[in-house]
Design goal:
Helix content: over 70%
Number of helices: 8
Distance between the termini: 25 Å
Radius of gyration: 19 Å
GO molecular function: heme binding
GO biological process, one term: cytochrome complex assembly
Order of helices and strands: HHHHHHHH
Structural class: mainly alpha
Shape: globular
Strand content: under 5%
Main location: membrane
Keywords: Cytochrome c-type biogenesis, Membrane, Transmembrane, Transmembrane helix
Largest sheet: none
Organism: Mailhella massiliensis
């Protein structure tokens, strides 16, 4: 067992109880358990960072597995949760990040022996991946906030009494601010990532496009992202519609990662 294995198991061992503690803290309305969840998630992020460094140091850049691509994606997702918790004072962002981080890290381990369709090659390709992962990571947190927004809004419209753990949930305006910040950060990053990807394809393959289905899905995600960004910035969209679009963007990203990459022929890794 090397350091990569040690840090991978440690990350999972911290993200799993962080997820359980988040659920228990919310349902039980226990601030102590909620804080424990945040601490466990932060510790998991530290172990996750060491896992990523160990994977890179072991030569993953030259012979990368499909699972490796999920490591920086899940890392950026937790980083987005930590940023939202710090900037917006919303620890609930970490409650969304912890279970997704556990799931993606578990998938990374599961695919660790599966060769990637394409290895990392050069700074342009690394920038392409990093920017894409930032765009998807922040939208994962926004999607969690969006799902909670839609549920809260539906309960309000039905005039359901505010009782139990719902009393501790963030206000609709706070959840919408998570969406706004995620869109402001995520859209430029995702756009940069797509642009770098097409430029890298032109340099490496001699063509901007290869007809790969993953490229078309990426362009669809970019179009929806652009719509969300434009409507928020130019028309002042708030509330229900941005929440729905955040869910659409993240769902399409998951479809790209776990369906396109495993069912359809593709030159891309995860």
């Amino acid at each position: 067992m090397d350091w990569t294995d040690i840090f991978s198991y440690l990350s999972l061992a911290l993200y799993a109880p962080a997820t359980v503690a988040a659920l228990a803290g919310v349902l039980g309305r226990s601030m102590r358990v909620k804080r424990l969840s945040c601490l466990l998630c932060a510790a998991g992020f530290a172990a996750h960072s060491l896992w990523l460094v160990a994977a890179l140091a072991s030569g993953a850049f030259s012979a990368v597995s499909r699972g490796f691509y999920l490591l920086p994606l899940s890392w950026f997702l937790v980083l987005a949760g930590l940023f939202m918790a710090r900037r917006q004072h919303m620890d609930i962002a970490l409650y969304f990040a912890a279970p997704w981080a556990f799931f993606l890290c578990a998938c990374a381990l599961g695919f660790s022996s599966t060769p990637g369709a394409m290895p990392m090659a050069g700074p342009l390709f690394v920038l392409h991946l990093a920017a894409i992962f930032v765009g998807v990571g922040v939208m994962a947190v926004a999607a969690g906030a969006g799902a909670l927004f839609l549920w809260q809004e539906g309960a309000i419209k039905k005039k359901m009494p505010l009782e139990g753990f719902r009393k501790d949930l963030p206000a609709l305006g706070a959840l919408d601010r998570v969406n706004a910040m995620a869109t402001l950060i995520g859209f430029p990053c995702y756009s940069l990532g797509v642009l770098c990807g097409f430029l890298w394809a032109r340099i490496s393959w001699g063509s901007f496009v290869s007809g790969d289905m993953k490229e078309w899905v990426s362009l669809i995600i970019l179009a929806v992202y652009a719509l969300l960004f434009h409507q928020r910035q130019a028309l002042g969209w708030r509330g229900r519609k941005p929440a729905i679009l955040a869910l659409v963007i993240f769902s399409a990203s998951l479809f790209s990662m776990f369906v396109v990459n495993t069912v359809f022929p593709t030159q891309h890794g995860f």
